[in-house]
Amino acid sequence: MSNFEGRVAVITGGGRGMGRAHACLLAARGASVVVQDILESEAHETVRMVRDAGGEAQAIICDVTDIRSLRTALAAMERRLGHLDILVNNAGIGSEASLEEITEQEFDRMFAVHVKGSFFATQAVVPGMKARRTGKIINISSIWGMVGHHAASDYCGAKAALLGLTKAWARELAPWNIHVNAVAPGGVLTEMVLQQPNIETRMADKIKLVPLGRYADPSEIAATVAFLASSEADFITGQVISPNGGQTIVGI
Amino acid sequence: MTHDLDGRVAIITGAGSGIGQATVWLLAERGAAVLVQDIDPDGAAATAARLGRQGCDFLVLVCDIADPQANRHIVEAAVNRWGALDILVNNAGIGIDRSIENIDELAFDRMFAVHVKGTFFTTQAAVPALKQSGRGRIINTSSRWALAGHDRASDYVAAKSAILGLTKAWARELAPHHITVNAIAPGGVKTAMVRRTLGESGIATEEKQVPLGRWSDPGEIAATTAFLASDAAAFITGQVISPNGGKTMVGF
Q1: What pLDDT digit, counting tens, does each position of A136-150 carry?
Q2: Could you list the active site residues of B?
Q3: Any CB–CB contact under 8 A between A19 and chain B?
Q4: What is the percent of chain B where pLDDT is above 90?
Q5: Which of B19, B212, B242 to probe the A interface (max A CBs under 10 A)?
Q6: CB atoms A224 and B249 under 8 Å
Q7: Which of B9, B87, B106, B110 is packed most tightly, with the most Cβ within 10 A?
Q8: Chain A residues within 8 A of B238 when measuring between CB atoms
């Protein structure tokens, strides 16, 4: 288990769910965390949780698709904290829509949040990482990005695009010792999932599909992110780790 | 240093050198009681010497992993000593770089006996104790070559691929018993054996083809195994993690 003392980690979408879990765990292990979210009170709540536990945290309130604001805020944070060492591209939005229902606007928003947001957040932190010849980028994909789903093709497409960015950046940034990997979670008990209608009855059916017979707590996904962010994973780049309880086992 | 494996009992096969040796040292350092299996008495003794100096709880067993009777004996030895078994690392292996014309039936059978039968029957013997553990972990050692192939050693590549098949099947079969089953597929590792056969200049040539520009030390592969063995990876099963410096990125 690595110590992140002296390192700064940026978590996009850190205001709730898995993003909050990533921020809290990295902070608990010593990282100073920058919590980006579009949701102001949620981001501040994560910051408060980290600080109450004795950690260091700052908030960036902006839409990840507002590239100019994102870039400006990350640059300001880098000047203030000295360096950004870890970037977790986690900000995302869900969908359950069928192909016919997805409007152009919804499609654009889906790709803007997941793909453009991750792309330009990474572009913003890379110069500093290259200069220090060290860096960890963790992109949050999904098992749906690996195996598809019967709906939400906009979401599946965007999550698959993140796997493409992961592999390309792993090769492009390797000469500067910057490691790029993806985490592709299966079922996770986030607020977003727990707030779905009739979730209690539906959950029984959902977990029947998972060999381990349960969904993960967000902290379990954070544990994989923390492993990839640590020096223990210094030879791991361009890979996808999927904590999914055995639901998806990819053919290799 | 973390002690997240305190109270666990682990068996590591092929622990007399290389990755297996590094793995046993790391798991013991993190608190596990360890059974060191190897066919080579000198290697096993070298592994044990350091465990002894560090005051670790360990047991050494010298036997051939390709002997199903020995496989049962390994598990019995651990269970008799510690009354439980939580972690099995199937690591014992042999590597010989032969072209197809130069692999005779005896060599072929030996390759599969060590990797596949050894892994299969050690696991079969271990399953009752792992079921009782409630947090059983099986980590199988495959190879990057099983993902990407190689221009020689097809017996080795096929045996390492069979290990991926066992991993995925057991992940599903053993999930109801809270046993997770994963594989690691290491890329280039600077073990003593490889240093002898390739030489430093041979390794340097190979390293040029790795995006990160280097091969790993055995300890870095052990770190991935230790992660999979820990509570942090409780939702990860049926997966393959390949610490390979970015040389192979599998297409999902």
Answers
A1: 999 999 999 888 888
A2: 156
A3: no
A4: 88
A5: B212
A6: no
A7: B87
A8: 211, 246, 248-249
Q: Is the pLDDT of residue A1 over 60?
A: no
What pLDDT sits at residue A251?
65
- Kindly report, residue by residue over A166-225, the tens digit of the pLDDT: 999 999 999 999 999 999 999 999 987 888 888 888 899 999 999 999 999 999 999 999
Whether B209 contacts chain A with CB within 8 A? no
Q: What is the pLDDT of residue B148?
A: 87
Beta-strand pair B137-141/A178-183: unpaired
- Residue B25 CB contacts under 8 Å (≥ 6 apart), including other chains: B47, B50, B51, B219, B222
Integer Cα distance of B22 and B11 in angstroms? 13
Is B172 part of the contact surface with chain A (CB cutoff 8 Å)? yes
At B107 the pLDDT is 94
Q: Do A171 and B220 touch (CB under 8 A)?
A: no
- pLDDT over threshold 90, residue A96: no
Given a contact cutoff of 8 angstroms between Cβ atoms, the answer to whether A22 and A11 are in contact is yes
Q: Kindly tell me the burial class for residue A98, based on how many C-beta atoms sit within 10 Å of its own C-beta (0-12, 13-18, 19 or more).
A: exposed
For A3-24, write each residue's pLDDT tens digit.
999 999 999 999 999 999 999 9
Find the DSSP H helices in chain A: 17-28, 40-52, 67-81, 104-111, 117-132, 143-147, 153-173, 191-194, 199-208, 218-229
Q: Pick the catalytic residue: A4, A119, A144, A155?
A: A155
Mutate to test the interface with A, among B235, B237, B239, B250 (most CBs of A within 10 A): B235
What number of CA atoms fall less than 13 Å from residue A83's CA on the CB side? 15
Residue A161: Cβ within 10 Å count: 19
